[in-house]
Structures are given as structure tokens and as C-alpha cells.
Design goal:
The structure holds two protein chains of two kinds. By secondary structure, chain A is mainly alpha-helical. Chain A is built from 13 helices and six strands. Chain A is 63% helix and 5% strand. Chain B contains two helices and no strands. The C terminus of chain B is likely disordered. Classes of the chains: A mainly alpha, B mainly alpha.
């Protein structure tokens, strides 16, 4: 079992490590780049790194399904879920969508999980979330109302915090780690295989996205990874654990949506929450019209910081929330 | 590092309040209310109320933090 898990992680990591620089080169050649506004000279960086994540992830998920045939249906529904998120993100990367339309389209990611749970009710045990103190809940109507948020929520939240080099892969690796430990502690040893392709892919992709980034994730990358995590949460019945480990993302999303008065693209915002000084240190905007974000709060509390210092704080906060998530798993009655 | 301390405390507070809500649901709803539909309905109301209180708390806290931004540092430094 350990050998199988290791081979899955290795395959996806190697694929991501080999594919990402080639994709970055291709994107630069076709001029699909974005300026890195937090760096001196604002260098152009290859965009849509999500394509590399998607390409590396697919064979690993197939191998996982072959190694664990009883997870075949789970793998298929998960693949369809993150493929929809990837397509929505890719369209947005090349042809900018409005914030509202993108959010609406991300809700489509729940469709495969709903269809599979209707077709195979004995395999997909949805509506039974595991929560601390109470154990396994038995939600009927309410779960189906909340289910679209289980996949679309993480997708959009991960996308909203994907603002600095390396934050997306590092913070989601922390979430995956907490999910992995929680699932093991709850006796879901076999299902953790569903996490391994994403774990390996992000490990192989990270060297190219960490500071200084050679490739940006784009919405294709962040929506895909968020939807994958949300899909796994629904399949594991670990929605509460994922919600706790995504606390920094949730707080950031709530602050932005409330202060901006709804779902808006950053391009549509009149003022930026964070300003870049001439020495390329970041500082919080003092304007009352600028939206509030987690980064703005960090800078308001700590003063001007360089990008690396902000990334360290954001990742540390995800580590704190991941520890709370693991603690939550131990509070679930067995 | 002040931000790590403040925001980690906020996360712990939100987490503890969520556990408190679950405990309330366990003690009040699951023990005294027999009807499943009423349980779900009451649970949903409590959950929505908790979300609203958390959102209000975050808004008040963030406004307080941003009000205290020091403008002593020079924008054109460097």
C-alpha cells in the first residue's frame, strides 16, 4: 500500500516537474503572459500553469483508479468535477469572464458528483458529513442545498487567495496534508489514495510557482485545485475538516465579498487593497473605498513587507488552520 | 508577526465558536426535538445566525485594524 502510494505521488510529481517548464516556454512563445507587479521591472511571467497541473494530474488519477479499482467511480466523478473547474478557469484565462459569471459557472462542478450519487447510491454516501462532537450527521434536504458550495466554495476561495507567488500550491498542500492525516485517523485509509495524485502534482509544480515564479497558476490552476479539494471533501464526508483547514481562504473570501459588495473581478475594483511602494514592498491601502482582504489585514498589522514575508505569513496561517482541522478530526466520535 | 498572532487567534475563536454551535445543536436540538424536519430547520436557522454573527465580527475587526494603519511609512521609499 505504501509502495503504491509512493509510486502515485512520484509519477504525478515527475510529470508536473517535467511538463510545467515546457508549458511555460510555450505560453511565453504565444505571448500568454502576465506582468508580475510585485517585482522590480514587472517581468512578464507565463500564465495558465493550471494546464500543466491538469495534464500531470490526469494519468496519475487513471493509475490510482487502476491500482484501486473500487475507487474507479470516485476517481471518475472527481475527474469530471475538476475538469469542469479547469475549463471554466481556462476560458477565464484567455477570455476574461465577469466575477459573477465565473462564480455561477463554478457551481457546475457539483453536477458529476450529484449524477454519480444518484446513479450509484451505494457507492456514494453523500449527506453524511462527519463533524466533531456529533459524529456522522444524517442530512437530507439541507445537504443537497449546500452541496454546490462544497465544490464551488473551495474552488472560488482558493482562486481568491491566489495573489502571490507560491501561495496557492503551498496553502493547498497544507490543506491536503490535514485532509490526509484526518482521513487516516478516521479509518479512511483506502480513500486517501484519491488525494495522492494532487499531492504529487503540486509538489512537482511548486518549484516553478514559488518565489520568483516562472509560471502563474491562472484561474485554470486555482479553480481546478480548489474543486478537487472540495470534491474529495464530499466523497470523504469531511466537509467540516476542509472548511476548517480553509479558514484563511474563507476569511479572505468573506472580507473581499462583503467589502466589495459582491463577487467582483479584481480588474473591476476601483481601488486595490494592497499598494506596491517604489522599493517593491507591499503596504495596506488606507482608502475606505478599497476592498478588505486577508493580505491587507496582514500589512495593516505588520506594516510594509516584501512579497516573501507576506507569503510566509499566509502559509503559516494555513498551517494553523490545518492543525485546527486535524484537531477537529480527533474530536469526531468513533 | 503581530498579524500571525491576531489572525491565528481569530481562527481559533471561529473554530471554537463552530464547536460551540455543534455542542448547542447536540444538547438542545438532538435531545429535545424529536421531529427530524424541525431539527433540520432549527439547525439551519442556528447555522445562518452563527454565519451572520461571524461575518459581523470579521467586518468590525477588520475596520478596527484598518483604521489603525500607520501612515508614518513613506510611500515613495526606495
Amino acid at each position: 500500500m505504501i509502495l503504491e502510494g509512493f509510486s502515485l505521488v512520484s509519477l504525478s510529481a515527475c510529470l508536473a516537474y517535467l511538463i510545467t517548464p515546457r508549458l511555460a516556454e510555450l505560453m511565453r512563445r504565444i505571448g500568454h503572459t502576465r506582468p508580475d507587479v510585485h517585482k522590480r521591472g514587472q517581468p512578464q511571467v507565463a500564465y495558465s500553469g493550471g494546464i500543466a497541473i491538469y495534464v500531470a494530474l490526469f494519468p496519475s488519477v487513471v493509475l490510482m483508479a487502476l491500482l484501486r479499482p473500487h475507487l474507479m467511480l470516485h476517481a471518475l466523478s472527481l475527474t469530471l468535477t475538476y475538469t469542469i473547474a479547469f475549463i471554466v478557469g481556462l476560458v477565464d484565462d484567455f477570455k476574461v469572464l465577469s466575477g459573477r459569471l465565473k462564480t455561477f459557472l463554478s457551481f457546475l462542478t457539483v453536477i458529476p458528483i450529484v449524477i454519480f450519487s444518484v446513479l450509484f447510491p451505494s457507492v456514494f454516501n453523500l449527506g453524511r458529513p462527519l463533524v466533531p462532537l456529533l459524529g456522522r450527521l444524517r442530512l437530507t434536504l439541507i445537504y443537497w442545498v449546500l452541496l454546490p458550495f462544497v465544490t464551488a466554495g473551495p474552488a472560488n476561495l482558493v482562486n481568491m487567495l491566489d495573489v502571490f507567488n507560491g501561495v496557492m500550491p503551498l496553502s493547498t498542500l497544507s490543506v491536503i496534508f490535514s485532509l490526509f492525516v484526518s482521513a487516516l485517523s478516521l479509518g479512511l485509509e483506502d480513500k486517501v489514495f484519491l488525494l495522492l495524485p494532487l499531492l504529487g502534482t503540486l509538489l512537482g509544480y511548486l518549484p516553478y510557482n514559488k518565489l520568483p515564479a516562472r509560471v502563474f497558476n491562472g484561474d485554470s490552476g486555482s479553480l481546478l485545485v480548489g474543486a478537487y479539494i472540495g470534491g474529495v471533501a464530499a466523497l470523504f464526508n469531511l466537509e467540516f475538516i476542509v472548511a476548517v483547514s480553509l479558514l484563511p481562504h474563507i476569511v479572505n473570501g468573506a472580507l473581499v465579498v462583503i467589502s466589495a459588495g459582491g463577487f467582483r473581478e479584481h480588474r473591476q475594483m476601483e481601488e486595490r487593497p494592497v499598494l506596491v511602494r517604489n522599493d517593491f514592498k507591499l503596504m495596506a491601502s488606507g482608502s475606505s473605498r478599497a476592498p478588505v482582504s486577508l493580505t491587507r489585514l496582514i500589512l495593516a498589522l505588520d506594516g510594509p513587507l516584501d512579497e516573501q514575508q507576506v507569503v510566509k505569513r499566509l502559509v503559516s496561517l494555513t498551517a494553523v488552520s490545518s492543525m485546527l482541522a486535524i484537531l477537529s478530526a480527533y474530536l469526531i466520535p468513533r | 508577526m503581530k498579524s500571525l498572532l491576531v489572525l491565528s487567534t481569530v481562527f481559533v475563536f471561529l473554530w471554537v465558536s463552530a464547536l460551540g454551535l455543534l455542542y448547542l445543536i447536540d444538547v438542545v436540538l438532538f435531545k429535545y426535538i424529536e421531529v427530524s424536519l424541525l431539527r433540520s430547520f432549527m439547525g439551519m436557522i442556528l447555522f445562518t445566525l452563527w454565519l451572520a454573527v461571524c461575518a459581523l465580527f470579521l467586518v468590525i475587526l477588520s475596520r478596527k485594524i484598518i483604521k489603525n494603519i500607520s501612515f508614518n511609512y513613506n510611500f515613495n521609499k526606495g
